[in-house]
Amino acid sequence: MTNFQSRVIEVVRRIPRGEVRSYGQVAGLAGRPGAARAVGTLMRKNRDPSVPCHRVIKSDGTLGGYNGNLGEKRDLLESEGVRLK
DNA sequence: CGTATGACGTGCA
DNA sequence: GTGCACGCCATAC
Question: pTM score, two decimals?
């Protein structure tokens, strides 16, 4: 496992319930500002349920992507109290 | 080791 | 508001 990947996972793991972070923010917190796209690359591969990857959305507030159905991601977030566009 | 890929971000038409 | 072109970065091939 690469160092970058570990960091990203750590960061995402710390996102409190009811809050969200953009891919770019996560990248920054992971120590690699500007690697937003790379974060997506990792999330796409990540299968670990201990990582609330559904709390990671785009910087403009839209959902972005998801492993399973996007509707699921939307519901999860709203059920956690997150407002979406 | 070079090329392709994608859950991004920003700017501009 | 919508769509497209580009640049970016870590991974997968």
Answer: 0.95
Q: Give A74 CA → C12 C1' in Å.
A: 29
What burial letters (b/e) apply to A33-44, b meaning 16+ CB within 10 Å? eebbebbbebbe
What pLDDT band is residue A85 in, cutting at 50, 70 and 90? Answer: confident
Q: Amino acid letter at A81?
A: G
Phi, psi of A39 (to 5 degrees): -60, -45
Q: Which of A26, A53, A56, A77 is the catalytic position?
A: A53
Neighbouring C-alpha atoms within 13 Å toward the C-beta of A48? 13
- Nearest Cα neighbor of A44 from A73, A62, A19, A67 is A67
Task: Give residue-wise pLDDT tens across range A4-27.
Answer: 999 999 999 999 999 999 999 999
